[in-house]
Amino acid sequence: VVDEENPVGLQLLLFLILGILGHFGTHRLIPGIRYYMLKRGICGKDLGKKGTDREDVDVPEALGIVPGAIFLICLMFCLVGFATNHPHKLLDLNSALLSICFMLFLGFTDDVLEWPWRYKLFLPSVASLPLLCCYEGSTSIVVPIPLRSYLMHAGELTTFGKLLCRLVVVDENAYGSIINLGTFYLAYMGLLSVFCTNAINIYAGINGLEVGQSYIIGCAVLYHNFIEIQSNGESAENHVFSAMIVVSFLGVSTALLRYNWFPASVFVGDTYCYFAGMTFAVVGILGHFSKTLLLFFIPQILNFVWSVPQLFRFVPCPKHRLPKFNAKTGLMEPSRVLLSTTSGGNRKQVEIANMTLINVFLQLFGPMHEQTLCIALLVFQSFCCGLGMYIRYNLAQIVFDY
Ligand code: UD1
Ligand code: MG
After folding, report:
1. 23 lines ligand 1 (CB under 6 A)
2. Model confidence over 325-345: pLDDT tens digits?
3. How far are the Cα atoms of 88, 131, 141, 186 from residue 136, in angstroms, in the given order?
4. Which atom of ligand 1 is nearest to the CA of 267?
5. Counting ligands in written order, which one lies closest to the CA of residue 267?
């Protein structure tokens, strides 16, 4: 309900209008920028169209720069509104802008210059510094009930436990139930931005998946924000802040999705993956709901865990692990990598599927059309976000009493 007694409703309506304007701005600008990207040779081949008449078509890359730039403009307008309604939140908003802007810039340089893998890991942690420096929230965590007695015993028995308890100042009033992680908590938040940015980037490779997954996670975050705003608790303002960022993000992302959906006429590039990941890290950190945020990242966590052997090179990792297109059937099949093993003194070469969640889907359900595969993965994403929401609102009370 929008009236003068309900400034939150009015603010949300203004954010919505900005998001809609952002959507149409992005939609209009993409064709123009697409042309310039092609002209400058910032383009790639769609590997999922090999053997078809689209095989040699150059698809412009890094188009995430358009929604990213429009998103920043939307947030700058929000700054104006925020300055009057929530002046004490301006530092948060400015640091959010700086972190996202820096990540967008890094993503774009990655698309143009192709950074080595080790930089990709390191850069998001630098980009999150502005956020961490102005973070004012608590650095304490509530220990899950079943772990409390272990923690107390560990503190008394082992040297490592004693050391750990000395480092993390245990709240005197609630011994064992709240621990203050201090600097470690800041390190955790830095790692969160490294995770969010890279997790989206490595769960990619078929048309529409990068933007699709970000869109669904964004909707889940927004829904969570609405529930918290409605409950009108003390953290409601943080959730208004988060909703403001996410509404603009969803507006610009849906415009990009229209161009990136199968058959893609643009690629979103690392620019978009980093931009989206950093946006989620920002709302999770400044909105103080980073654990809930991670519940919406279940598919990305599964994909990351399953990818670990390849990411850390225990198993060879080719540049591209996206599924292989079979031009005869027109379907996607799991892509494979050669693995050398030694058994009984003989060196043998075996072929295994690249370790990604996308390939696992193809192994479980058989070859699929690229669009069907994308829809199936997005349905799975929605299911996981629903599950995350259920855990957050129904199961969390069992292990946390705060
Ligand atoms: C990450 C993945 C890689 C995956 C790639 C595709 C890891 C460690 N890296 O690498 O396995 O193959 O993303 O996004 O998991 N492309 C398509 N169709 C699409 C999207 C991309 O064919 O729908 C191809 C295009 O050739 C495009 C290229 O992927 O030019 C972009 O790859 P890039 O983002 O540079 O790969 P990485 O992020 O390094
Ligand atoms: Mg990428």
Report:
1. no
2. 999 999 999 999 999 888 888
3. 11, 10, 15, 11
4. 20
5. 1
ipTM of the complex: 0.98
The predicted model scores a pTM of: 0.93
Residue 258, classified by CB atoms within 10 Å of its CB into exposed (0-12), middle (13-18) or buried (19+), is: middle
Give, in degrees to the nearest 5, the angle at Cα 211 between 310 and 273.
Answer: 50
Cβ atoms within 10 Å of 80's Cβ, excluding its own: 8
The predicted-structure confidence for 86-100, as pLDDT tens digits, reads as follows 888 889 999 999 999
**Does ligand 1 have an atom closer than 6 angstroms to the CB of 48?**
yes
Which ligand sits nearest to residue 324's alpha carbon? 1
Cα-trace Rg, the chain: 23
Residue whose token pair is 């696992």: 360
The span from the CA of 157 to the CA of 161, in Å, is: 7
Q: Say how far apart CA 249 and CA 70 lie, in whole Å.
A: 9
Residues, the chain: 402
CA of 197 to the centre of ligand 1 (A): 14
- Does residue 339 sit in helix, strand or coil? strand
Query: Residue holding tokens 């959507």?
Result: 23
